[in-house]
């Protein structure tokens, strides 16, 4: 006998309980309007027969698919190389697992990918979406809004269409940057450089703003744009040293860029922190504890941000929810 043939059906549950199939369906799928004695008979029949609801049929009744789309506006080469995304996905996955929901990962690299993601979300395959790593003029917020799925954003999606009244989870990027630069000032450093992240992302823009709040008169030659990667940090550090070889401190907008900066400083024969103090941002232990020297950095709760995004979405109150900005903390190690 095949598994399909031996599997109890909803009709069998209804017959065992002595109710109609419609009544059995309402009880199994959590519907209202069934008298308690009948509910108890159906539940007893389900237990006796070992009935397991068909998820495809269940989703038609409840409009739930027990799946959440996680949309990252980055190419796969970036996502799988950056531990930031691994930490955030781990937090999301833990929360979804606790709610018996599946993670569907969608990555975007170009306009064709945006259209594909928009079609998928509009197709009713998931109960909601978690969207992060947005860039300036990214069409994803508008696509998600038109798809009509509940959505929580990772990071402040301030510059794109479809973000008015958006619910998001972020860290205090500006405050963390202020703390990093103030720490360098307190160490007596006076020529502090900043390696930014990509300035078409709000996190990088906010960290640059925090830098400028503490160092409003900084020489523009002490600011170099990067891309949150080690290679980008290397390029920016070389550019800064060529412009201002007398710089005595660097605040890098993330730990990966800081690791690249440290390599260039070592190549140039400069001591850290004796000649140049370095502070990063993220406190990803796989990076910050492995650099030479270990990296002083600003900790943001990356995994917790992921969990909170999923929690807000699965709580079902996204429309009424307020956005959350989590605090950051300066973690002192040997680089500054």
Secondary-structure map:
Elements: H1 3-6, H2 10-17, H3 21-28, H4 36-49, H5 55-62, E1 67-72, H6 76-79, H7 83-98, E2 102-107, H8 111-122, E3 128-132, H9 140-147, E4 151-154, E5 168-171, H10 173-186, E6 192-196, H11 202-214, E7 223-225, H12 230-243, E8 249-252, H13 255-267, E9 277-282, H14 285-288, E10 296-299, H15 302-314, E11 324-326, E12 329-331
Parallel strand pairs: 1-2, 1-3, 3-4, 4-5, 5-11, 6-7, 6-8, 8-9, 9-10
Antiparallel strand pairs: 10-12
Helix pairs in contact: 2-3, 2-4, 3-4, 7-15, 8-9, 10-11, 12-13
Helical coverage, percent range = 40-55%
Instruction: Give the strand order, joined by hyphens, for the main sheet.
Output: 2-1-3-4-5-11
Shape: elongated
The secondary-structure class comes to alpha/beta
Major β-sheet profile: 6 strands, parallel
Q: How many distinct beta strands?
A: 12
What do the pLDDT scores average to? 89
The number of distinct helices, counting runs of at least 4 residues, comes to: 15
Terminal-residue CA separation:
70 Å
Strand content: 15-25%
Summarize the structure.
This protein is an alpha/beta fold and 336 residues long. The chain has helices at 3-6, 10-17, 21-28, 36-49, 55-62, 76-79, 83-98, 111-122, 140-147, 173-186, 202-214, 230-243, 255-267, 285-288, 302-314; strands at residues 67-72, 102-107, 128-132, 151-154, 168-171, 192-196, 223-225, 249-252, 277-282, 296-299, 324-326, 329-331.
């Amino acid at each position: 006998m095949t598994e399909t043939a031996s599997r109890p059906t909803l009709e069998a549950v209804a017959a065992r309980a002595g109710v109609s199939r419609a009544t059995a369906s309402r009880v199994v799928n959590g519907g209202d309007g069934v008298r308690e004695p009948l509910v108890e008979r159906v539940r007893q029949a389900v237990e006796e027969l070992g009935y397991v609801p068909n998820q495809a049929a269940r989703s038609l009744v409840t409009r739930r698919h027990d799946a959440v789309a996680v949309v990252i506006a980055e190419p796969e080469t970036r996502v799988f190389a950056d531990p930031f995304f691994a930490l955030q996905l781990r937090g999301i996955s833990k929360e979804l697992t606790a709610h018996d929901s599946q993670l569907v990962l969608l990555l975007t690299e170009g306009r064709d990918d945006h259209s594909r993601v928009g079609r998928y979300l509009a197709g009713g395959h998931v109960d909601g979406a978690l969207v992060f790593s947005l860039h300036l003029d990214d069409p994803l917020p508008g696509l998600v809004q038109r798809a009509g799925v509940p959505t929580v954003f990772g990071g402040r999606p301030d510059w794109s269409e479809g973000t008015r009244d958006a619910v998001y989870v972020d860290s205090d990027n500006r405050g963390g940057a202020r703390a990093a630069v103030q720490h360098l000032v307190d160490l007596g450093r006076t020529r502090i450089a900043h390696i930014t992240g990509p300035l078409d992302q709000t996190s990088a823009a906010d960290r640059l703003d925090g830098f400028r709040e503490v160092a409003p008169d900084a020489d523009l030659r002490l600011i170099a744009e990067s891309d949150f990667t080690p290679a980008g940090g290397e390029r920016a550090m070389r550019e800064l040293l060529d412009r201002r070889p007398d710089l005595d401190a660097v605040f890098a907008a993330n730990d990966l860029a800081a690791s690249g900066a440290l390599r260039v400083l070592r190549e140039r024969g400069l001591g850290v922190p004796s000649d140049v103090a370095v502070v990063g941002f993220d406190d990803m232990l796989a990076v910050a504890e492995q650099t030479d020297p270990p990296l002083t950095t600003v900790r943001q709760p990356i995994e917790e941000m992921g969990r909170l995004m999923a929690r807000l979405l699965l709580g079902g109150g996204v429309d009424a929810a307020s956005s959350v900005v989590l605090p950051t903390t300066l973690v002192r190690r040997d680089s500054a």
